[in-house]
Amino acid sequence: MSEKRVYTFGNGKAEGRADMRNLLGGKGANLAEMNLVGVPVPPGFTITTDVCTEYYEKGKDAVVALLKDDVERSMKLIEDTIGKKFGDPSNPLLVSVRSGARASMPGMMDTILNLGLNDEVVEGLAKKTDNPHFAWDSYRRFVQMYGDVVLGMKPVNKDDVDPFEAIIEQVKSQRGIKLDYELNVEELQQLVKLFKEAIKKQTGSDFPSDPVEQLWGAICAVFGSWMNKRAILYRKLNGIPDDWGTAVSVMAMVYGNMGETSATGVCFSRDAATGENIFNGEWLKNAQGEDVVSGVRTPQQITLEGSRRWAELQGVSEEERKSKYPSLEEEMPEVYKQLNEIQDKLEKHYHDMQDMEFTVQEGKLWFLQTRNGKRTGTAMVKIAMDLLKEGEIDEKTAIERCEPNKLDELLHPIFDKEALKHTHTLTHGLPASPGAATGQIVFFADDAAKWHADGHKVVMVRIETSPEDLAGMSAAEGILTARGGMTSHAAVVARGMGKCCVSGAGNIHVDYKKRTVEIHGQVFHEGDYISLNGSTGQVYEGEVKTRPAEVSGYFAELMDLCDKYTKLVVRTNADTPHDAEVAKSFGAVGIGLCRTEHMFFEAEKIKAMREMILADTTEDREKALAKLLPLQKKDFVGILKCMNGLPVNIRLLDPPLHEFVPHDEKGQKIMAEEMGVSIQKIKERVASLEEHNPMLGLRGCRLGIKFPEITKMQTKAILGAAIELKKQGLDPKPEIMVPLVGTYKELKLQKEVINKAAKEVFAEEGMELPFKVGTMIEIPRAALTADKIAEYAEYFSFGTNDLTQMTFGYSRDDINSFLPSYLSNKILDVDPFQVLDQEGVGQLIKSAVEKGHKTRPDLKCGICGEHGGEPSSVKFCHRAGLDYVSCSPFRVPIARLAAAQAAVEE
Ligand code: PEP
Ligand code: MG
User: Fold this and answer.
1) Residue 541 φ/ψ region, left for φ over 0, alpha for ψ in the -120 to 50 degree band, beta for the rest
2) Mean pLDDT score of the chain
3) What is its EC number (predicted)?
């Protein structure tokens, strides 16, 4: 806990720095840093994230008492720097109060602007600025924001009407105007009066007129907003711990709404969607920050080039663009020049793409924020590789700049070019976040979540989105909005989530009541299919076929770079040549787990398998197995051929036999007919296979020990397949893996069966071939006795699915019945079946690796449980000294990046 609670900044000086983001939040740290770099920033101060923790421990009053002196001192400093006085009608200082966590959480917490206004101060401000409209507009915005955020007037349910918005609508309709900024001074005064009455009516208290009281209310409300529902959800989605807390930054207000020489905007030093090195952003003349992102007014482009591109996409003529939507570059060339210089300076200073907010007050440019910009997976890779080429960062930094899980976006399918030729383009909007999305239309966030839970793919269509829509956006395949630009809420959040988004499609008309959207006269209802191309902004009718993505261009360069540093290699879990092929194209260098049981679920094979299960004698069983052998061999030929020259680790039959027989009457009847036996016999056999704990029953090597002929058949099929390929001049590298071993004796016995079968097949084929025998380590006892097991195993593959199940004693199939309570009670931070439990399960892995190596120094160790594709688990595997991880094909690039990061971090 830091002793110092408040850090001031202003006029080129600051008590904080960029590397203090844990304490000052990203915003507070960068406001300090910008001062130190010489960027114009209004003076202010930041209250630390530690105080947020104190707020939740000690309560509001205690925290106010602790902060009082520091805040008074800091407010005085702002007053002196800027030459204005808080609460003084003759020369008033107004401030903004903003949240800022360690990791950026855009729009999730609260902000209060224009604080310090009351009935006297507003008059003073009007006089001082000679602009009563500006003063009263600021005042009505302040009362509204303060009412919503601090006094709890914001409606909780989507169907409830915001009391303030209702009042604004009422006043506007009385006067027959449409837009907020058309309200005149008397109407703004009327609004303030009505707002205050509404507050009194709903809360029972008067609106606080004392600026100091306002300030404390706002500071505490921002701390309070750390625990609002949407912030909690956002943290959950992004893996941000609840105990980090938010900082609070208080800063002198500057105004972008003081007339024609004032403006406000948001800009990026590179394109956050594509990663292209193009300065871009949006601005509005005579407006405040929220006007740009709220989607109420159409924001204009900052650069001329961007403006022309925008106009083309929107179908706006050059003439109309110039008169109605000119760029900042054209409108305020001097300001633009300075802005462009500073954005470049900030990017070079931070060596990363910056997302910046600025305000122009009567011709003077102020920066309000800079942060490393959120970006799509595509942009993430391109920017990292470009910065590397530009010499801004080194190779290791480029690897560390990429977030493994975000690569997932690059692996998502894209629209099939052929299919697109036959698709009708309905309209287009802005390409806010790339990707291909196809799904059924829904209009509300909770419907999106519900439909998604029921197994539907949905596209959420909204006039605009707000932070309340987060859960729905996360559940949807894509988001389409009628309003809002590239920096609208929908666009920013979708890019952060890697979700496809088309925003600002002006030609769509959404009717929430009827649950329809009309596009050029065509009406679509909830449930109709629609498709979005987030890379071009196109909106298509119906479902459009997609095809798999490929690793090429920058992505391939990044992967090559990873290979330069990585120590762990990445294999894949694949049971079919198709999956193996996909994984190979993503860079897998072998198969770490081929689950042979998955090969039995085809009609012919399941029949032979059932005959084997039904057999009463070894002889009958061998007959059935003889039928299975050529079928299995064919499978192995396919997979070994595809992975020619690379190791293929094939696991002997693992699951309990009851998984192969039907449990319903109808299925049993069909099986009886097929097998030519009575249904009674089938029923008896099914009953005899039933177990109380099938996961702990007759499965894994226990099957091979009870029925060695199964192990023999599988060995002959594997090695027979390999020999067949070898005879064709190929280079198959089979490995045979024994599952669910708990004692070395099990492995010893199975190995004898394997070696005997190998001899037989070599003699039959007249050819020998090297192969390895290894085991899964997935039972705690196996991990604990790994030294003995290593005497018989040439390699270990950690089956962390079962190892987690048996170490925790949680059923891997039923954890969801109690996981939510375990998460909310903080017994677990994450699902241990997704993220490896390094503390417990990890200990078993580490010690097994050590023990195994003592017995057999060249023992190869890998992991093939689900964790093999999860970044933090992959990094653990690196540290534990494993040789490889194996994961599903689409996780291969993610694991490659995580493995390289682990090596770089070391
Ligand atoms: C494991 O247990 O981690 C494993 C890979 O095997 P399976 O999931 O097939 O039980
Ligand atoms: Mg297992």
Assistant:
1) beta
2) 93
3) 2.7.9.1
